[in-house]
Amino acid sequence: MIAEEFKQMLGQKSVIRELSEYAAERAKQVGYENVFDYSLGNPSVSVPRAFTDKLIELASSEDSMAVHGYSPSLGITSVREKVAASLSERFGLNYKKEHIFMTSGAAGALAHALRAVVTAGDEVITFAPFFPEYTPYVHGLGAVLKVVPPDTETMQINFEAFEKMFSSKVAAVLINTPNNPSGAVYSTETIKKLAAFLSEKEKEYGHDIYLISDEPYREIVFEHVDAPYTAQYYTHTITCYSFSKSLSLPGERIGYVAVNPDCPDAALIITMCGQISRGIGHNCPPSLIQLAVAQVLDMTADLSVYETNMNILYDGLTKLGFSCVKPGGTFYIFPKALEDDAVAFCKHALKYDLILVPADSFGCPGYFRMAYCIPTEKVERSLTAFEKLAKDYQ
Amino acid sequence: MIAEEFKQMLGQKSVIRELSEYAAERAKQVGYENVFDYSLGNPSVSVPRAFTDKLIELASSEDSMAVHGYSPSLGITSVREKVAASLSERFGLNYKKEHIFMTSGAAGALAHALRAVVTAGDEVITFAPFFPEYTPYVHGLGAVLKVVPPDTETMQINFEAFEKMFSSKVAAVLINTPNNPSGAVYSTETIKKLAAFLSEKEKEYGHDIYLISDEPYREIVFEHVDAPYTAQYYTHTITCYSFSKSLSLPGERIGYVAVNPDCPDAALIITMCGQISRGIGHNCPPSLIQLAVAQVLDMTADLSVYETNMNILYDGLTKLGFSCVKPGGTFYIFPKALEDDAVAFCKHALKYDLILVPADSFGCPGYFRMAYCIPTEKVERSLTAFEKLAKDYQ
């Protein structure tokens, strides 16, 4: 009596995982330094020293249960208070602990946010290019995920297509800015236009429409880039955050749901998250990690290498004739492939030990994603390989 | 568009939580030492020093990503190998990493095990007294949880009632031994009888029936108690484990699913767990904790205090006229209340600052649970309070 639903999913092996396994194999043959593995979004910089120090201090505590004991189901109260205070100070909204729910990373945050405001039969709209895991998140609820085609000129929102696809069945709109995989950051203009449209539709349909803002890359924004905080522009915003990228600890599974304090149901949604946890096997992020992260909330790892790498790649690739929107943040860049079939293109790139991810699964065929969270010297050396690759298409 | 299903759940405030909040309030008035709080199953002993040392050693590593990086979706490979080796050595089954899936505690393990072998419309059978969180676990799948009434004479399985309730719709049987709340440990005789019955039913109905064995208290078994390892007796066993109690770190959310290696679908179920994780927001237990626990797999915290406390309580309570099956493990004892209505009894006990949990929500009305993971001297002092309580019923 094996559950067929999940058995079927086994067939769909992740392209990214396949590529990264290939890269690991290839590294054994030609040496790790000669494989330009741009496949995996694993941060390449160290956790801040302050985080490690706080973690060790906590672990050394005589009061074992104060550190390793059960967390309340909504998260450790002092941690929620600190997260609320930090968000309020930074973004000017009046967050209290009642608006914060601690989660196992952004995945945990999205799982709860979606369950809180979306039920079976509802529609959720997102925008290509998009993080492919949104599909199982939404399908698992019995809801429908509709993907708005990309605006490849700007990698902002394709409002024309969006407005056409919108209906009264839409319970939530799911955005990801700074964006994986495009690296684009939605501008204040984009967010304002989106907020105005949703407010209008709320009035027209007579029900709330939630904006779920997936922001694990919020702290990786490059110089002079306009990066608005979504919740400031729309009342029914549920912010989903992860410290994975900002603190370089993706394996420690720590993040939160923050509901806009101006949302009348904010506190209700948070207490509901505690109920949603029951049954899905979530039950709070690790206590030790909650407590340690709460000590370094306003810190980040040294993220500057990402901007350095981005500039090298953006300049190098555009010079070689690639077309590409300049990333405003994240550690991704998203150029157009040199042939229509990005899968064929990425396969061809393997000839030069360039591991690139075709963007078909991101809802943007013809493009490819590069995760440049790798050493800068390797990024530089990879340009020679790109030169050879580009020549093959001249 | 708030999801009504979870909003409705908010009404059902947990009795245990309510009592423990009352106990905390009362402690402020009369002093912590004067409140005998038996409500919460939070381990009272420290994590082993070796765990803390390994954790600090790992956290101090120069290679930040090797410690804090993403875990593969089934768990860190070296950790799965070590868990498999430890189980094989201890229980004589040939576990390999292919049979192990790392989870966020037992809750995560149960969420995956149930989803792997139970689908909407199926029935799951469990035995009273039972852990009340099984209800949302099973209902969340659209399946039906059937609870076999208790055998209060022995707190083993009431086979007569069980056999009557069994039907071809049963996809899985869920047991918890050593048991929360009764403290009973299923004997070899019980497990053999259960296994034989299920094997017979598998033949009769022509489909697999899984035995999901929830074993977070496996390491807390008292002297001379017969405590069989369930998977040794039944091929289709899925073992759900948590290190919360054995290592005293319930807040760190670490456990595993182990499928009997002799089960033909063992490796399939484990890879399916990786797919189940997608969408429910699970995504692996924390890397640092996985790595640290793997270093102390065959260790436990000093659990001896639980047996000491149990003996004091068992002797003291039976002398006062309470009837009670002697616990074989865990840190729970489960006496019969001195009046039919255990809720009224527990309310009355508050008069003497005894915080006891009525067992109605455990499917065993008329009984109450005591979690004696508190200091021994407090257990001793509490007997005076019990004496006063018992007098009121003479």
TrEMBL record, chains A, B:
Signal peptide (residue range): none
All copies of domain Aminotransferase class I/classII large, residue ranges: 39-385
PROSITE patterns linked to this entry: AA_TRANSFER_CLASS_1 (PS00105)
Classification via SUPFAM superfamilies: PLP-dependent transferases (SSF53383)
EC number: 2.6.1.-
Pfam families: Aminotran_1_2 (PF00155)
Listed GO MF terms: transaminase activity
Annotated keywords: Aminotransferase, Transferase
Keyword Transferase: yes
Cofactor(s) needed: pyridoxal 5'-phosphate
Coiled-coil ranges from the UniProt annotation: none
Family named by the database record: Belongs to the class-I pyridoxal-phosphate-dependent aminotransferase family.
PANTHER family the record matches: ASPARTATE AMINOTRANSFERASE YHDR-RELATED
The protein, known as: Aminotransferase
Species per Swiss-Prot/TrEMBL record: Sporolactobacillus shoreicorticis
